Amino acid sequence: MSACVPARAADSDRTERAHPPHSPPPAGPPRPRIAGADLSASVAVFLIALPLSLGIALATGAPLQAGLVAAAVGGIVAGRIGGSPLQVSGPAAGLTVVTADLIQQYGWRTTCAITVLAGISQLGLGCLRVARGALAVSPAIVHGMLAGIGVTIAVAQLHIVLGGTPQSSVPDNLLALPAQLANLHPAALSVSLLTLALLLLWPRIPGRPGRVLRTVPAALVAVAGATAVAAAAGLVLPKVDLPSWRNHALTGLPEGPVLGLAAAVLTTTLVCSVQSLLGAVAVDKLVSGRPGSSQVGRSDLDRELLGQGAANIVSGSLGGLPVAGVAVRSSANVKAGAVSRNSTMLHGVLVVIAALLMVPLLEFIPLASLAALVMAVGIQMVSLHHIRTVTRHREVLVYAVTTLGVVSLGVLEGVALGIAVAVGVALHRLTRTRITHEEEEGVHHVHVRGQLTFLAVPRLSRALHLVPQGADVVVALDGSFMDHAAYETLQDWQSTHTARGGTVEITGRRTGVRIAEPAALSFGHPPDGSEEAGTSDADCRCRPWTAWRNHQCERPRPGGDPRPGGTDGTERADGTDGAAEGAPEPAETGGHELRRGISAFQRNTAPLVRGELARLAREGQRPGQLFLTCTDSRVITSMITSSGPGDLFVVRNVGNLVPPPGAESGDDSVAAAIEYAVEMLAVRSITVCGHSGCSAMQALLGTEPDGARTPLRRWLRHGRPSLRRMGDGSLPPSRLAGRTPTDAVEQLCLTNVVQQLEHLRAHESVARAMKDGALELHGMYFHVGEAQAYLLTERDGEKVFDRVRSPDLAM
Question: What's phi and psi for 541, nearest 5 deg?
Fold first, then answer.
């Protein structure tokens, strides 16, 4: 197995110490150091895992000890070997239905053997390095599978909540529900309702007492509270029964038909792997959203498969349930502040201690309370957020079919149905292409919505032949794919139309730029060499990399043919000449430029963003961060942060200054924006972004203390603390990683970002949110000439701006 572990992943968890040949031998192995955050996080995860592990074992019909075995093995083995340091593995609710079916069909010992074989399969997949391929499964199928499992769990556990016994399938459970309702067990129902009430209300306790009490997991409070009430009231209920570990059943040889066992192993491998890999990706997102995320490395998904496989082999061999990454425990681990895999492993050790020493206490827990807990988990697996997401992406059919298939047929069958429907939907979208033709102000517009394949060629030809000879035509392609047949049809028609005196402009509506084809078959150049409205990448000085730049794109005329009145013989991207009939072209006024920009937005961009903006208009703005930067026109916040409508709450001022609280009047606008963003919008981060060549910093360097008191000079007084900080020899200077600042202006730009962050921390709303852990501050420097962003970090007391590299350039 070790040969399959990537070398860098295997070496990352051990420290090699080299000793000179004549040095004395080391005194002994170094003591492992465990961070306090890992210790506290392990306790929090343990308190959640203990009742959930027992409840999941109860829901599957396995021995209750099997849940504890899986929790311990998942924490220790998967935690040590796996590639996601903060993901917590153990018995998962998503495996409940699969395991229950296996136990009913093959018995417990064979189910353990199937778990071992599934672990071996996961080891093989990890060695083949196919983990990323598992993430190619449509999210609608994954969410539908989890929703179907959640419905199955909830319906089955409802019978135990009501004081009865669940049936073997969802239809049978639904048919038996009326009779179960007619024969309620009051004691079991009351304990279950109390458990659900505590589970629901505990996280909602308001005020400062609530923040303190919420540190105790709701699952533990719900089960412990219901157990205490049941014991105090003397209720007679079925309770947890943990027989002696000497009687614990271990794995046996698999018994049953080969094809059936193979299908069982495949199903277990599929569910365990997909849930664990998706969980690892989700954990990475959670970690990246909290302060100090750089301490935790990103998940190695292939290594995670190896860790999960090893854990399933050990768990199955010891008579435990199948193991997978568990979302509830993993999110609790991240939120509790864990910084390494030690927290996951310690939680497994605590489960072992509890299983050995706390058996008398565990046997007080009513089964109805555990059933209510697991039923709540099952209901939560049917996520309204997921339903809204798949609806927005028009994949609700795939989600619904997968869910119904899992509920009525089983997990493997439901997933297979979902995949089939997803393929059908993809083919339907590929063949469903809308082609329209309309005339507007003498220009004919042919709009193609969807993928342009050979199946759409007849409709494309009909639309193109509606265009009269010699007419001006705009062909808008709103799709991401065009096959060879469609390309040939469009190219042949364009050549014929332009040869007869017409003009053709082919645009991609998704980006608002002209389509450029490789090699000689460029849409921009017909065979006769005449200049058309289209263009190729080679002819365009500004490659079509952003729609906002396209309206300023100019291209040289063939052969560098300068025209009178033009400065360089260029033609504008809108098809107009740089000069008209030998007369000097008048300079374009701001009004014309504004009108042209708005017109381009309405034509190219508005149709693409209208739906998203309509949603934001209904729901209101909920930005994730406040971005405070300079008014410099070269700093495009949406471009350098890859953000869109509703993502950023932006404040811009000269010099990206943050006046400290209590400053003189006239500066309340920045403080008001900060207070509104933190208090009303609940942004999670604030970024102060400086940039190279800042004119405000140049002016600040040249400001005389008693100079003219103009509005600009009065505003720049808030930058004087940055000047003093730069000149303070007792403070280490801010610097860029890998090089020194080029001049005093760049040094002041860096120092100013650090100083404005200090001003931010002095604002009451910011300080309060940071104390509660709800807000983090970031410093950023954007070098305009290099198009390079730098993020502020602290190293050994120094403020260092690190270059942000793209993934393909990172070493």
Answer: -70, -35
Burial of 318 (0-12, 13-18, 19+ CB in 10 A): middle
Q: For residue 393, what are the contacts with CB-CB under 8 A and spacing of at least 6? A: 140
The DSSP call for residue 728 is -
Mean pLDDT throughout 365-394?
87
The CA angle 322-99-353, to the nearest 5 degrees, is 45
Q: Contact at 8 Å (CB) between 573 and 505?
A: no
User: Which pair of structure tokens corresponds to residue 427?
Assistant: 């083919």
Residue 78, both tokens: 């998967």
> For residues 75 and 349, is the Cβ–Cβ distance under 8 A?
yes
Cα–Cα nearest to 760, from 691, 677, 680: 677
Q: Report residue 142 CA to chain centroid gap.
A: 15
Structure confidence by residue, pLDDT tens digits, 332-350: 888 878 888 899 999 999 9
DSSP string, 501-559: T-EEEEEETTTTEE---STT--TT--TT----S---GGG-SS-SS-HHHHTT-EEEPGG
Q: How far is CA 571 from CA 4, 165, 527, 550, in A?
A: 59, 80, 20, 13
**Mean pLDDT across 643-653:** 90
H or E element that contains 749: helix 744-762
Q: Which of 138, 381, 146, 133 is nearest to 277 (CA)?
A: 133
Q: Is the pLDDT of residue 554 over 60?
A: no
* pTM (two decimals): 0.54
Lowest mean pLDDT among 5-9, 29-33, 343-347: 5-9
Q: Are 571 and 554 in contact (CB under 8 A)?
A: yes
Strands (E), 341-497: 434-440, 443-449, 472-478
pLDDT, tens only, 486-510:
888 888 898 889 888 889 888 764 4
Residue 336, token pair as written in the block? 């509790």
Who has greater pLDDT, 457 or 667? 457
User: What confidence category does residue 569 fall into, taking pLDDT thresholds of 50, 70 and 90?
Assistant: very low
User: Looking at residue 153, what is its pLDDT?
Assistant: 83
Please measure the distance between the N-terminal and C-terminal CA atoms of the chain and give it in whole angstroms. 27
How far from 143 is each of 395, 398, 410, 622, CA to CA, in Å?
Answer: 11, 10, 15, 25
| Nearest residue to 626 (alpha-carbon basis) of 668, 667, 682, 666 | 682
Determine contact, residues 564/584, Cβ cutoff 8 Å. yes
